[in-house]
Amino acid sequence: MAKERRFGLIVIGDEILSGRRSDKHLSKMIELLGERGMHLSWARYVADDPNQITQTLKETFASGDVVFSTGGIGATPDDHTRQAAARALGVELALHPQAKELITARIIASAEGDPMKADLNRPENQHRFKMGEFPVGSEIIPNPYNQIPGFRIREHHFFPGFPVMAAPMMAWCLDEHYRDHFHQTNWLEQSFIVPSGIESTLTPLMESVESEFQGIKVFSLPSVGDPIRGGVFAKRHIELGVKGDADIVPMALEKLKSGTADLGFEVFIHQ
């Protein structure tokens, strides 16, 4: 059985932080991992700032985690990810031979028979090759959408910021490089609702259950109420639950439920 790995996600782009665009990478990454019996351990949002990206990557390269990063691998002035990855690793950027071939094929296909547009020496075409300049030692990640590849190095995987491109590239990386980690963790998450629950009162119980049952985590998700959802969810409540080893979760959940009831709170089971 393969050792369980931590998977992380970095989403790079001022447009995400400013709200001009909504992030779709996080939900897709969670979905792709979940389909393969894995889960996301952390996520970070980073601005289009070279120093910030470099520092973030220095930290994540040192972590030993598997990291997926989206955004900033183009060749416009606000694209800094390729350069930041090279600086974080202390290596140079170089045009990857396979990337050069793929970009060349894309230029020729886009020219649609026009020899001037297909001229690789044209300044705009020479500029396109910058999208294939990756940190030395990188491997390419195929891009089925437009053939302009991403790259991977030191278990970090770099994708375009466009979800339509990034999603299939993420799936390819998981299937190509991490198949031996699929469905290795017997993972389960279960919870119940505590109407008018008080976290400070429930916290000692949560700590006790987590301490007693190794391999699980207890979580608390308080809500001020959602009138639109209605029912028990309409008023203030807490979603209380456990997650982790599927063989242990049911026992830990029962202990949490009985302890919650003993404290005088109602327990509402939901689907």
Structural features:
single chain; 3-stranded antiparallel β-sheet; alpha/beta; 6-stranded mixed β-sheet; 9 helices; 271 residues
Residue share in helix: 25-40%
* Terminus-to-terminus distance: 32 Å
Strand residue content: 15-25%
> What would you call the quaternary organization?
single chain
Q: How does the major sheet shape up?
A: 6 strands, mixed
- Spatial arrangement of strands, main beta sheet: 2-1-3-8-7-6
Q: What is the N-to-C succession of helices and strands?
A: EHHEHEHEHHEEEEHEHEEH
Structural class estimated from helices and strands: alpha/beta
Average of the residue pLDDT scores: 95
Walk me through this protein's architecture.
The chain is built from 9 helices and 11 strands. The chain has a 6-stranded mixed beta sheet with strand order 2-1-3-8-7-6, sandwiched between helices. Strands 9-11-10 form a 3-stranded antiparallel beta sheet, covered by helices on one side. β7 and β8 form a beta hairpin. The longest helix has 15 residues. The chain starts with 6 loop residues before the first strand and ends in a 9-residue tail after the last helix.
